[in-house]
């Protein structure tokens, strides 16, 4: 039999940027991208396509997202950028005393404790209500079909599925049994090219389609989630779901060398990317793969992340203002800390002067930057029995320290890693972009923006380029494809460099750039994933 091996790639390959005029969907999984473009061919717009793609991704890439996760979107419609925050808050019954009484000294990663209110279904429904064109039920039909009829696993997803099984097996608890019942075939992870069916998820998606997701928050699905939580000693209740609504928010931005770079405001970590770029704007860069470029990028990111991890939390609980963290005076003080040697970063005080991703675009000029996630792969390991709903573990980000900015409070949102990005220039849409992958995301945003703006790379080359990743203190990870000389030079400056051949740790991104004169779309897709660009 011909090989379906997921990770045997003895020869280098090259992708080209993809061009189209009528429509484009860039996503991390081919079947999901095709589901989105099919919706566009049937009369839907970029928003409809984004919803269809996102719903399909919960089926074909459950290793990165699910119905029980969160979502954010930046949507360009009729010359204006809109931000949607569909992240959930801590249940009313979840607090520091309850977690400590259960024997935890820090928020656990798995089980019901880190489960926060899922916002993902509300994002689909809200986007459709405000900007969609086709009936909502039509948008979920491709995902329902994929779940009911089955789909062949793509290679990277198959690999991540096995990783999840190994991890869950090592931390297995009774509350996680439904995951093993739902996502395994005869007790094992499905393999690349093997058909996988999820009839329970198909039924849930059908209920969401029929009710425009009301069932999840104020109907039968909410009742089932409530009961499953009670049965397992969890904290989530139907009252938490009933009171939930996504929020339209004002995106935040900086102007970087003539381009406006947009992010979702806190509790998202997009602010880290903006702070980093604001610092880097004070330097000149003439070569992407030079020691000076990489050193300054890494040092700026470290400073911004130290601030972000110290200050960013639910916007209603932030102790500093976004404007203060992005102010010229504070930025200059942080920039002056960058010297010729690697430093150990610490948070500053601005008062003394911080998954799966998809992009869509249509012929009318509408563009969507959309991201959704269950956080750690499949999430908490908790699946609502006979539903296909894998619940996120976003609450793991909360701190049990009373004075921490991200301290656990009932009804509060956590520091959030998933962030969509967007570029505009002179009031015109240029590009939705994003790089999924936990704390890699703002680091990926910085590298993508600079690849496009500073170094003139096309969308595909901007994604193909080797990446670095700050790992804490002076630790830096570098992809194997990067120059060995560059890695050695960074080490001589005091960076603790590790080179890895596992590119899945360096994020997975998508970019669609629109020519403002011709309307032609140019897309790049992630070589580190099963990615695909569908066009019309």
Task: Explain what the structure shows.
The chain is α+β, with helices and mostly antiparallel strands. It has a domain at 24-248 and 357-397. Helix content is 35%, strand content 19%. It has 18 helices and 21 strands. The protein has helices at 30-41, 46-60, 96-101, 120-131, 136-149, 155-170, 177-183, 199-211, 214-218, 220-232, 238-242, 270-280, 291-311, 322-325, 328-335, 441-453, 459-464, 484-492, and strands at residues 18-20, 23-27, 70-77, 80-86, 151-152, 195-196, 247-249, 252-256, 259-263, 356-362, 367-373, 383-384, 389-390, 421-425, 428-436, 468-472, 475-479, 496-500, 508-514, 521-525, 532-535. The longest helix is centred in the middle third of the chain and has 21 residues, at 291-311. It starts with 17 loop residues before the first strand and ends with a strand.
